[in-house]
Amino acid sequence: MYTPSSPIGWRNKGHLGDDLYLGDNPKFGAVFTYYIDESHKSLKQIRKKEEKKKMKAKEDIKYPSWDEFRAEDIELKAYLLFTIKDSKGEIVRKLKAPIVKGLHRLTWDYKYQGVNMVADGKKSELVNQGMGMPAMPGTYTLEMAKVIDEIITPLANKQTFRVASLYNERLQADPEVHRYNLHIAEVAKEFSKLNSRIGYQNKQIKQIMLAIKANGDNAQKQMKEALFVKRSIDSLNTIIGRDQVKRKRYAPAAPGLQGRLSGVIYEVWNSPAPITGTQKTNIEIVAKHNKTIAATIEENAIKIDELNTYLDKIGAPYTPGR
After folding, report:
1. In this model, does residue 171 exceed pLDDT 80?
2. pLDDT category, 9, cuts 50, 70, 90?
3. In a designed cystine with 129, which of 114, 238, 304, 313 is the match (CB 3.0 to 4.6 A)?
4. Is residue 214 part of a domain?
5. What is the mean pLDDT of residues 130-134?
6. What is the model's pTM?
7. How many other CB atoms are there within 10 angstroms of residue 62's CB atom?
8. First-residue to last-residue Cα distance in the chain
9. How many domains does the chain have?
């Protein structure tokens, strides 16, 4: 393993222009080769194949029932699941591939699962969780299974492989660096969770304020409480992002927590260089704010529950969280 470089720019040809021919390098990472002796067929593919046979034989083709169409529409896509574990048996990464007959290759980029909120994955990613921290050199195992209707069936035997650091890069093999990367990952996961909760509460309070305006009778007290929550959320968003009041007026502003965290993750997890004091300071700033932000979110949640109780009492239409 090593850290890939981009000597001519951000990606691909960089600034060299389209006229320059540039071939693709092999995918970076550990390459796994496997063979599938039979492709998986979906219900629709099976039906189409049977219909094609009947057409050739000039036989009548039965039109599918609504239940058959419904079964085809709700069928989950089958896939191969590759699970990479470390020497302690802990999951490092999960990758996926289609169940297609033939010889195939899958590449693992020596990274752990990401730290962001879970979203649908693309191509070989089981889920999209953003960038993950780099793995340590050492011994790993690969387990292969097929997943049909979310039922996991193991395939082949567990394979063991070893990851070595190119040029014996000391820092990548340093357990202390790995432990701090785990700390960064935990801080990032907590920050992502809190950021998502703030976004949801912001959506809630906006709808609550509209509901109070439309349905409340002499509800100045409730509107004042809702406005207090809204300003609390705005204050959190200023801490997380940048001060938008200053930013849109081109005035200097301190970096937000999001900028501090994403900057450290990009710099540390894409480089074999030692972690700097500034990077550690930024992580500890985010970790410290995570605690105060979590407390503020809980306080806002109590106030939002009280406002939801009021909306229920006056028979207001649906708002998120009620």
Report:
1. no
2. low
3. 114
4. yes
5. 88
6. 0.87
7. 11
8. 51
9. 2
Q: How far apart are CA 41 and CA 99, in angstroms?
A: 9
Beta strands 91-97 and 151-163: pairing type? unpaired
Q: What gap in Å lies between CA 66 and CA 73, rounded to an integer? A: 10
13-30: per-residue pLDDT in tens? 777 777 888 788 888 999
- Same domain, residue pair 185 and 144: no
For a pLDDT cut of 70, what percent of the chain falls above it? 97
Q: Contact at 8 Å (CB) between 156 and 144?
A: yes
DSSP 135: P
Judge if 129 and 207 occupy the same domain: no
What is the rounded distance in angstroms from the CA atom of residue 130 to the CA atom of residue 188?
11
DSSP string, 20-81: S--PPPPPSSEEEEEEESS----HHHHHHHHHHHHHHTT---PPPPHHHHHHHHHPPPPEEE
Do the beta carbons of residue 86 and residue 138 sit within 8 Å? yes
Domain limits for position 218 = 175-313
Residues 133 and 216 in one domain: no
Q: Are residues 213 and 286 in the same domain?
A: yes
